[in-house]
Predict the structure.
Amino acid sequence: MAETLDLSVFVKRTGELAHMDLAVEGVGCAGCIRKIETGLKQLPGVVDARLNFTNRRLAVDWRPAELEASAVVDALERIGYHAHPFEPQRAESDEAVTARALLKALAVAGFAAMNIMLLSVSVWSGNVSDMTQETRDFFHWLSALIALPAATYAGQPFFHSAWRALRTRALNMDVPISLGVLLALGMSLYETATHAQHAYFDSAVMLLFFLLCGRYLEHAMRQRTRAVAGNLAALKAEVAHRFDAGGEVVMVPAAALAPGDRLLVRPGERVPADGMVISGASAIDESLVTGETVPRKVTAGATIYTGSLNHSGALTMRVTAAGSGTLLDEVERLLEKAASARSRYLRLSDRAARLYAPLVHATAALTLLGWLVAGASIHDSIITAIAVLIITCPCALALAIPTVQVVASGALFRSGVILNTGDAVERLAEADTVIFDKTGTLTLPEPRVENVEVFEPELLEQAARLALTSRHPLAQALAREARLRAPIAGAVEEPGQGVRALIDGSEARLGSAAFCGASDAPDLQADVSSIVFTHAGRRAVFAIKQRLRADAATVVRALAAAGLDVRILSGDRASAVAPVAAALGVTNWLGGLKPADKIAAIEALKRDGRRVLMVGDGLNDAPALASAHISMSPISAAHIAQTHADAVFLGERLMPVLQAVSTARRARRLMQQNLWLAVIYNAIAVPIAIAGLVTPLIAAAAMSGSSILVTLNALRVRGRAPATREPAP
Amino acid sequence: MNVLVYLVPMALLLGLTGLAAFLWSLSNGQYDDVEGAALRILDNDDIEAPERPAKR
């Protein structure tokens, strides 16, 4: 490569050394680790290279005086791996810190729970045999010595969250948890000081241990999906050709662009930033931006958007921030409105907590009063009331939902769906209307040759191999049909017209109708582009257009069968949407919509009480994605759309959408089942507690029993169907 | 039963050692790449290539 990539934005300097993190594609076996690490260490100046196989990331340290950052990427390319540097997302590193803190708390709680249990079992068996008062007190004090510091440390996640909720006068599940733990500890301490038979240190710490298990698993799963999403984003990152001060073209990552930069966009490249054309003329394909499939002609002064594909001529553009009156400005304004209008979704667990917490606290208060009225001493009444609080401490309830969520997002991850938000599963299960965007969502992101079958295989192969030489988008669509991926030798490209080469001694041409001398070729419909191939008197006119995803019809039918109302809202012309809707059997469709129209349509459905699942990929879909109840984007989507979608799906098929809906529905059913299991547990345990019959042994057995039961039930989300999709990269 | 006076604290001390070891390994980054660690053991990088017997 003649040009070198300027990667200085990604390089971190510490003293003598430079450091860079890269996402690496195609790492799949033990050999890759060695190949990459030893390969890089052979470069002069590289001090250390370490590949993290779990998240497919490579950390390289080198002496900047001896080596350029781009040499590292080039070296990886030579070894056979495509790598792209990336800036770790803030959210991702925050998540890693929290996960580590949770794991530490889990370790402390686990250590404390096991050791206290050891002492408790001795006390329980001692109480029915010959334990002396002194030994029991000694064991109780030892338990207190372990439990108090351990609970103070390991309980922090719950105490903090409960305190935050109480300060805003709200209730969450952590309020009864914290109250139960603190009361159990306080009462046990008092009982120990008064030489009583029972102490509940084990219950309090074991509760923390179980809850931390659930919380850590939830976090670890989210961290894993986020790492994959981060890698995909980094590998997709585009490079831009920027004019530097001297007028020379330098390659830079699109992330490093700033308003005012002048860029060169060649044919076949995507526009790397929003901006204005300064010079040049071309047709650009804005299907990723507006959903419009017919290329738009642009000249100096025109506004162009990130993700548009440059078809025919080289353009010089200036990067601008969103100016008023442009599409981007409108989209950003709408996004702001949509984000603030989206009512904060009340999670199932929070809804349960709102019902549960007052009920539990009222029951405890009534128990206290009841025993006092019945003539029990104040001490005994308080002890019984606290026992009620301990036994109702929502261990099973707090595990009921997160465990299902963890298993469900794991199952979705395997079927190629990456969740961006924590409560996506719940909201997905509630969807009753699906709105699809057309271009890039129902159809494949890249155009394909429509009429492959009418040509002789040999002719098609020759044309496709000739097309391999060209960067033009139409030629690239044709090139995808090539079985032998070897370009024809000696092919010459005439910019903006086509490619010619000698095949078997006679000239072959591929390109526009005029270039091939075939101006009499039949006219095609507006949304079909054509590319002509001539060779030795034979001629082929390839029709190239956006094709439906292979399983689009199956998925749409299955969604309708599952009781969902399927609709299409497209930014493309109505005449282009109609055949797609007809092919899919969708009667409810609209075309030619602006971003604001899409939002209006969704708002109208919302007012009817519908819960809308929006599936879209374009810049123009971003506001609609943000305002829908739940949203999904294909991985090929525009960056802004992807960041506002609740879930991203991989691959060329639409099947993940269907799988996501069915998994989410199954998960929701199990969440409800789990909540009922927790209710049944309480229905059995609470009367025993009110009667004053709860011993620490019963409390421990009941808590672990119910926790294990809901966790096992959650595992059923995975279902019996084997995961058929390829694993995520 | 007096034996408990030193046996129990000793048991606790041993447990605490285990906990401390785990916390150390966590902050030392031992769990950052669990899958990679399982594969790295298969790598013969301690045997230098030229030392292999030449092919006959």
User: Anything to note?
Assistant: The domain at 448-545 of chain A is CATH 3.40.1110.10 (Calcium-transporting ATPase, cytoplasmic domain N). Residues 722-729 of chain A have pLDDT under 50 and may be disordered.
